[in-house]
Amino acid sequence: MHEISIPDHVVDAVKSRRGTEHPHENLDPGKTALIVIDLQNGFMMDGVAHALCETAREIVPNVNRLAGAIRETGGKVYWIQNTHDDDCLILWSTLHDMTPLEKTAKRIESMSEGGLGHELWADLDVRDEDERVKKYRYSAFLPGYSELPEKLRAAGIDTVIIVGTVTNVCCESSARDAMMTNFRTIMVTDANAANSDAEHNASLINFYLTFGDIMSTGQLIECLRGNAIGSAVQAAE
Questions:
Q1: Would you say residue 101 lies in a domain?
Q2: How far is Cα 220 from Cα 66, in angstroms, rounded to an integer?
Q3: Helices (H) and strands (E) in the chain, counts
Q4: Which of 17, 53, 57, 99 is the most buried (most CB within 10 A)?
């Protein structure tokens, strides 16, 4: 698991700019979705992964805890699968132009539908009431390359919690685009995974300073349950 290091001056800057350390702690659990980014064999399984992130295996228990808390408090869980199709080679040629041919071939093998690499990691607690959504770019919120934003709006979601791998690529890209397409966005400090503590923390800091909120798994579960109780009490009055 990553050693989380968010400097005091960053927290102070957020407080000064937002007026609070956690600008989204007032979230409505019933309008909140857990967005699980790319926890697939193609990033987690030895011998299959085209871009192995070993730390991603360590966050699975926290992801499952969050999924349970989201369902319990009235929200929804979305499992996002990074997906290659033939259009990627043409419409996303800038990626492949700077990637060695053998690595491109491995990515195609790993991320194409029907292959072992495309499948979700077996230890994830995926339920029938959850949804699976494919994405064809790093960001799950990039218009035209994922159906996720439309699905979220149709479900009445206004707040998204980002977990998965890798922190500083697909997770941060999704989180930034989520905020810029008008979703309240939270990245979970101990349920995202990168290839080093330095990359992980730099990504969280950059996001926290400008784009949204960060919380630990424990903080977020407490927030979800506390707000759910508060909403139930209000409704009963």
A1: yes
A2: 8
A3: 11, 6
A4: 53
- Separation between Cα atoms, residue 233 and residue 237, nearest integer Å: 6
- Report the Cα 115 to chain-centroid distance in Å: 22
User: Is 3 part of a structural domain of the chain?
Assistant: no
Phi, psi of 187 (to 5 degrees): -100, 140
10-residue block means of pLDDT along the chain (237 residues)?
A: 96 96 97 98 95 97 98 98 88 83 83 93 98 97 96 98 98 98 98 98 98 98 91 55
Q: How many domains does the chain have?
A: 1
Other C-beta atoms closer than 10 Å to the C-beta of 221 total: 19
Q: How far is CA 102 from CA 31, 115, 154, in A?
A: 43, 18, 41
User: Which pair of structure tokens corresponds to residue 35?
Assistant: 């967005």
User: Model confidence over 142-185: pLDDT tens digits?
Assistant: 999 999 999 999 999 999 999 999 999 999 999 999 999 999 99
- DSSP-assigned beta bridge partners for residue 34: 77, 161
User: Is 34:68 a contact under the CB 8 Å cutoff?
Assistant: no
- What sign does the dihedral 29-70-56-9 (CA atoms) show? positive
Q: How many CB atoms are located within 10 Å of the residue 71 CB?
A: 16
What CATH number does residue 176 fall under? 3.40.50.850
pTM score: 0.95
Residue at 167 is within a domain: yes
Determine the structural domain holding residue 118 and report its residue range: 8-236
Sign (positive/negative) of CA torsion 112, 125, 160, 44?
Answer: negative
